[in-house]
Amino acid sequence: MTKILLITIFLFSSLIYANYADTYGISSEEISKGNAVTATVNNWSSAYYNIAGLGKTKYLKNKKQTNELAVSYMYTLPLLNLNIEKETNATKDLKFGTITFGVAIDIRNFINLPKMISSARFGMIMGMMQDGTLARVNDLDIRSHSFLRYGRDIQRAVIFSGLGLGFNNDMFGIGFGANIWTTGKGKIKMSNLELNSGKQIPSSQTQLDLSPKMAPVVGFYFSYADFDLGFSYKHELYMDLPLETNAAMLLAGVEMALELYVTDFYTPTSLTLGLAYKFSDLTLSIDVEYQMWSNFVKSKSAQNFVEIYNKDNGDKEDIVLPEMKDIIIPKIGISYSGLKDFRFNAGYYYRPTFLPDDAGKTFYNFMDSNAQVISLGVNYIIPKNSVLVASMELNFTTQFQILSSKDVIKSADFVSDLNPDYNFNGTVISIFAEILMRW
Asked: Residue 9: helix, strand or coil by DSSP?
């Protein structure tokens, strides 16, 4: 007689913070302005910052060169300190590099559009790790110490695409597109398993269906004289991968039905309003971004773990899954273009943590704190000449993220040598370089 056991295998959700672009930004030049560009962006990176900016070609120096191809490189070096009386890998292997490709294609080169449409471009962004890796999935035990915005936790490909349209000589414009990732489901069947501690390679059958998962992004801009206004909306996106698994023992006549879950790469819904004003050669821009972390999707495995733990440990304080906080991120950017062929940019923003103050008092060791972010950059324009058939822009930027010191104090029922109190802080230094070609 075959016995059937129902078992849930917990792959704990590590509350991953989406992707590297949400931590740093996507374009070297826009990062140098503190990412405060919702009202002014009008290049390939509009697909990320404000999709409507693709439909804004009026302000390009050469209005005949509206097609763009960009390559942007980032290298980040987090210098983070974790003061804890326990060995941990939390501060190891945090540095990495990315390569981002961006394109903007003027649709008017192919299609005759109504005169009321003054600009129309399709844009796409594709970013990945410098070694070609598309994603490093980290659905870890909730007790693991992990910096949510840095290292492996944000290493996944970034894909945005969409269309921007400008109207009435680019007085106003709209855009719509998608943030693209993947989801799916699968089945795993294993047989001829043995009850021993040695390494086994069981007979197995696997079915895995992966499909694109798209979250809508929309944008709007309005321009009048030296004043610009912009609005951007990006819907939440995450990866949820249930795996139905069956394992059969060779001699014991036991069949195990396993439930496996992977939940990763959560990106919250965000709304950003931007204002900008141009004072002759100086442009001042201000953004306010609202991130809706309170809608965070909790892993089924983490919820099951909490229920079982609280039931089996009724004499101790209950574990409660942290309720994420909505956050508001104010940003400011300055751009000076008074020197021929050069632009000098600077930016600042304050990014509060989305974790509640008591998030780490039990088993949870996810780390994030308030941060001040400062950036400086320079942009150089190489005009079309006898060698270059199209104009080219070079940009170099440095960004500093300064994390506030944070103490994590465990409650009496949870503090131990394996789960001690700790403190963390640090600075993250990143460099960016970008080449942009227009034709």
From this structure: coil
Cα angle for residues 74, 77, 80 (degrees, 5° grid): 145
Q: Are 237 and 264 in contact (CB under 8 A)?
A: no
CATH class belonging to 3-438: mainly beta
Residue the block writes with tokens 């201000």: 286
Q: Give me the residue spans of the domains in the chain.
A: 3-438
Tens of pLDDT, residues 165-221: 999 999 999 999 999 887 777 777 776 666 666 666 676 677 777 778 899 999 999
How many other CB atoms are found less than 10 A from the CB of residue 241? 20
Question: Would you say 438 and 417 are in contact if contact means Cβ atoms under 8 Å apart?
Answer: no
Q: Which amino acid is at 292?
A: M
> What phi, psi does 148 have (nearest 5°)?
-65, -30
Of 52-61, 231-240, 247-256, 349-358, highest mean pLDDT: 349-358
Tokens of 281: 């050669």
Helices (H) and strands (E) in the chain, counts: 4, 19
> What six digits make up the tokens of 319?
């574990």
* CA torsion, ordered 152, 234, 165, 345, to nearest 10 deg: -60
Question: CA nearest 104: which of 46, 143, 146, 145?
Answer: 46
Block residue for tokens 């930016």:
347
